[in-house]
């Protein structure tokens, strides 16, 4: 499949999921990286009107998991995020987040992924908002029979 087909399939798979609720849209795929965007609006704010850290981590885990999914045979394997470690670096009120996931290690049964989230705020300034590492387990579907 080419890049456009992969992005189409990834975005189509988001229907009726948390990704659709948060407005996460996949925008680029290189084979080694996956990038998605999400608008920072009141729908992802916490009560003090800043971006909720959980929304950032959900975005990171989504992009990191789907990067692993692009490398396995999904008819035979599930991908599960088993550990997520995030550092929130700067608060955000409004703007657009861009998350890019890349592999640190790609094994047969586990992947370690690094996700960098940048924000472009309402003034056009871009800064790193969040740094995340995660571990994905690659589990045969026959384990769930």
Average the pLDDT over all residues and give the rounded result: 95
Strand order in the sheet with the most strands? 1-2-4-5-6-3
Report the strand count: 6
Q: How many angstroms separate the termini?
A: 29 Å
Structural class: alpha+beta
| Rounded Rg | 15 Å
Query: What global shape is seen?
Result: globular
* Beta-strand percentage range: 35-45%
What is the string of helix and strand elements?
HHEEHEEEE
Q: Characteristics of this structure?
A:
alpha+beta; 6-stranded antiparallel sheet; 145 residues; 43% strand; 6 strands; 3 helices
What would you note in describing this structure?
- By secondary structure, the chain is of the alpha+beta class.
- The chain contains 3 helices and 6 strands; from the N terminus they run ααββαββββ.
- Strand 5 and strand 6 form a beta hairpin.
- The longest helix has 17 residues.
- The model has no long low-confidence stretch (mean pLDDT 95).
Summarize the structure.
With 145 residues, the chain is α+β, with helices and mostly antiparallel strands. It contains three helices and six strands, in the order H-H-E-E-H-E-E-E-E.
């Amino acid at each position: 499949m080419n890049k456009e087909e992969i992005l189409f399939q990834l975005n189509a798979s988001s229907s009726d999921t948390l990704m659709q609720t948060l407005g996460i849209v996949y925008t680029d795929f290189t084979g080694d990286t996956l990038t998605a965007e999400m608008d920072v609006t009141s729908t992802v704010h916490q009560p003090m009107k800043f971006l909720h850290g959980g929304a950032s981590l959900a975005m990171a885990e989504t992009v990191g998991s789907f990067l692993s999914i692009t490398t396995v045979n999904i008819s035979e394997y599930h991908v599960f995020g088993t550990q997520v470690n995030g550092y929130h670096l700067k608060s955000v009120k409004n703007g657009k987040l861009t998350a890019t996931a890349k592999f640190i290690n790609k094994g047969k049964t586990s992947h370690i992924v690094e996700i960098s989230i940048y924000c472009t705020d309402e003034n056009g300034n871009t800064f790193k908002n969040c740094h995340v590492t995660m571990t994905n387990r690659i589990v045969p579907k026959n384990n769930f029979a």
